[in-house]
Amino acid sequence: MIALVSAPSNLGLRPPRPGTVPGTSKAPEALREAGLHERFSAAGARDAGVVLPGRYVDDDATRPAGRVRNERALVEHSRRLARRLDEVLEAGDAPLVLGGDCSILLGAGLALSRRGGSGLVHLDGHTDFRHPGNSEACASVAGEDLAAAVGLHWPAIADLDGAGPYFDAARAAHLGHRDDDEHADEARRTLGLVVSAAEALAQPATRLAELIRATAGSGYWLQLDVDLLDPSVMPAVDSPDPGGLDVDTLTTLPAELAPAAIGASVTVFDPDLDPDGRYARLIAELVAEGFGGAGLRRVALSPSASSQLERLTARGGHAECEAPDRRRSTRPPWGGGSPWGDRLSLRTIRVARFGDERS
User: Fold this and answer.
1) Measured distance CA(261)–CA(226) in Å, rounded
2) Of 100, 256, 301, 321, which shows the fewest CB atoms inside 10 Å?
3) Angle separating helix axes 205-216 and 247-257, nearest 10 degrees
4) What is the DSSP string of 128-189?
5) What does the pLDDT look like over 245-258, one tens digit per residue?
6) CATH 3.30.1330.60: does it fit domain 2-353?
């Protein structure tokens, strides 16, 4: 069963203007108003509540060096979100987290790291790969979440409770940045797969999904930042950049990827930039079609499960994990790191589609 979790955090974003507050905290309720919860409920999903963040503070004038914006509140929210996700997973359900800004990826990563780890699929209009090793401007985790998720940030956010890195970089796949992204080259050297928006638009979505699954393996977290869309389609985000994906591609891609995901998150929609609600309705439609139509699979990871889960062959609600054939190259023509980690083993784990009755 899908469990909808609201995480209305704006703590990882810079203020739109000095003294103002980002509007992403309003996104879950705007999506509810647009009919998202009603559609998922009709399909058998449940509402797993809200994890409220602390108060947003524009702390640019007072924040000491070596700390990110709203650090204390962001860390506490990540821990509480991780606990809520752990409860959902323990119940045998698959979480769909409605943000909020994309710093909520830290909470998802913390939860999954404690349960043995998973792959990561990061669909975003930016690499979000800024970190203290490549920039002196580190402050807003919403532009640094992918780097933090694979351990390339200050320990205060990249190693919460000693659980970092939250995801294995070799099993992390990013898709969607624009060609002028300043951290794309480093991301290509570090992650298992990196695909720009331009490269993605030149490939069938089904082929892209194959490459991503080959990198992340089965049992990954699926993070979708809606600024992946071109601003001609989705301007209601904090950093709209031209050259993004079209609606058809962004509908097909999650539908292809969702069946092998443990859970997912949708982030960075700003209702303050959507006065008549048209973009909330578009996102509700995309999420319902992409995540609800195909259905996700729930991979029941125990805390002792291996962090290297391989391809699943579903058989009547069960699956056999199979190690990949290393002789077959899954490297895309535009490059990228090794799509598989080095520590692979054969295991058997339970898999159930969203909405299936648990035995």
Assistant:
1) 18
2) 256
3) 40
4) ----TTT-S----GGGTHHHHHTT-S-HHHHSGGG---SS-GGGEEEEEE-TT-TTHHHHHH
5) 999 999 899 999 99
6) no
